Every structure is written in C-alpha cells, then in structure tokens.
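Why should sequence recovery work at all? Because a backbone constrains its sequence more than one might expect. Tight turns favour small or flexible residues, buried strands favour hydrophobic ones, and helices have their own preferences. The token representation captures these environments compactly. In the example below, the structure is given first.
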C-alpha cells in the first residue's frame, strides 16, 4: 500500500519536541494539534484527525510497532472506561486552565516569567537555555513554557503506555481524542 503525505506526520511531532527543547517559543506551534482536531470534529462530525493525521499516534505506532518498543499487551479495561477517560480529560483541562492563569499573571505583571518546564505536573525542569529575551512580552514565553509542559507530559505518558501495552494505547485515553469524540456524538450530521 502506497504511503500518503499524512503518513509522515510523526516527523512533525518529533520536530515539535526537538524545536521546543532549543527555543521554547516553538511550543506555540502545538496549538495546531489542539485546534485542527477540534475544527475537523466540529465541521465533519468525525475523528478524522485522530484516525489519519495525528503525528503523535503515528510516532507511538512506529516506535512500538516497527521498532518493537511495545509489549503489545491489551490496555486494562479501567483505562478504556468512560470514568477514566472523562476524568483524565477533566484533569487535563484543569491543568490547561492553570497554565492559562499563570500566563495571565505574567501578562498582567502580577508574576514574573518562570523558565521552567513541568514534567508530569510534578518535576520542574529548568529550561532557561530555551528562551532568550525577545521583543515579545514575557507572557508569550510563559504560555510557551506551560504548553510545552503539557505536550511533553502527554508524550511521556504516551510513551509509557506504549511500552507497557499496545503501541497506540495513548489514543484510548488521549484528552483530545475524548474531547473530539464528545463533539462527534453531539454533531448534527452524525450518522446513527
């Protein structure tokens, strides 16, 4: 079967993580992974992004499948359950809102910029080399540090579940996948 252009979007996911390591402002590009799935699910009423265009899912499939870094075990039933997926989505939304709040505080000069990437919401990794003062307000960088933290954390969680279970196990409980699934269920053109 001939590969299509979108079969190589895993390169975009890798590039994003690498660029953010060297210049945190590249983290803003991650918003594409946030808005494109929402736009597709709102306009088409399907999960086309998850099924075809998600570079992160492709990356996990490649690492776990082609490179054999996965145990290829079934994901536990509780991770597939609605309560876990919706709970995980809620948790991620709270973390996202906290990131926006911190960005707001920097924009209003109530707090100074913290050049830190937080991994797994716990471990603070100093990322000072990735940001050099620019003509942008420090709030722009604060958002980038926060968003990169979210993207890096979700990638690490995906890698862990990829190694323990099937390659694309992350896709089962991915907050964006859960959100687009909810949108698709409510879409007026949804086929019953």
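From this structural description, the recovered sequence reads:
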């Amino acid at each position: 079967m001939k590969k299509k252009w979108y079969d190589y979007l895993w390169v975009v996911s890798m590039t994003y993580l690498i660029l953010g390591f060297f210049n945190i402002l590249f983290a803003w590009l991650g918003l594409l992974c946030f808005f494109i799935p929402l736009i597709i699910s709102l306009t088409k009423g399907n999960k086309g992004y998850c099924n075809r265009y998600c570079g992160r899912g492709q990356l996990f499939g490649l690492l776990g499948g082609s490179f054999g870094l996965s145990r290829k075990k079934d994901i536990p039933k509780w991770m597939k359950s609605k309560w876990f997926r919706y709970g995980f989505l809620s948790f991620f939304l709270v973390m996202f809102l906290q990131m926006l709040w911190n960005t707001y505080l920097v924009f209003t000069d109530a707090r100074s910029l913290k050049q830190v990437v937080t991994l797994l919401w716990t471990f603070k990794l100093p990322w000072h080399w990735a940001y050099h003062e620019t003509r942008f307000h420090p709030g722009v960088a604060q958002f980038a540090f926060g968003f990169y933290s979210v993207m890096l954390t979700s990638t690490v969680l995906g890698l862990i579940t990829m190694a323990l279970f099937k390659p694309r196990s992350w896709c089962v409980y991915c907050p964006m996948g859960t959100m687009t699934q909810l949108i698709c269920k409510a879409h007026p053109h949804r086929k019953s």
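A few observations help interpret the result. The chain has a mean pLDDT of 92.
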